[in-house]
Amino acid sequence: MPPGWIEAECKHVGLGVAGECFFRTRVEGEDFREGSAPSEAALAFMDLREGMHKDDVRTWFSATFRISNNGDYRVEYDYDNKPEFSNPQPSDLEFLNEQRYYPRSEEKKPTGSKRAYVGFRRSDLW
User: Fold this and answer.
1) d(CA 54, CA 103)
2) Were both Cys, which of 42, 46, 56, 74 would link to 21 (CB 3.0–4.6 Å)?
3) 47, 17 contact by CB (below 8 A)
4) Alpha-carbon span 125 to 112, nearest angstrom
5) pLDDT digit of tens for each residue in the chain (126 aa)?
């Protein structure tokens, strides 16, 4: 962490077997600074995503971990909204992998879509 940091945030987005981590820190008196997430963070989030999946229920598309320099922390999970990747976006295959590896019941599929993922184009999911 940079000297004088007061808050750090690590966000992971996942779809199928694709994942991406974003990291930023805030130093007292300044806005957040973008940085690089350690590769261990991405692997830990991927393991967590897999471990939190329940058959026919769902797992999250993004998770955000925030920690303050006083040790307070919180984690937020987003189970319903399209994950926001930087470029390039995941391939259409990842939408199929999502249903293969993390199947959801009809009522747990993303908002705006009650059809099966198989055969979907990216634009059909959200």
Assistant:
1) 8
2) 42
3) no
4) 7
5) 888 999 999 999 999 989 999 999 999 889 999 998 988 999 999 999 999 998 777 889 999 999 999 999 999 999 888 888 997 888 888 888 888 888 877 777 765 433 333 444 444 444
Provide the token pair at 60: 């999250």
Phi/psi at 125 (nearest 5 deg)?
Answer: -80, -40
Residue with tokens 């805030």: 26
Q: Would residue 12 be called left, alpha or beta, if left means φ above 0 and alpha means ψ between -120 and 50 degrees?
A: beta
Contact 75, 41 (CB under 8 A): no
Query: What type of residue sits at position 21?
Result: C
pTM exceeds 0.70, yes or no:
yes
Phi, psi (5° rounding) for residue 51?
Answer: -65, -25
Identity of residue 53? H
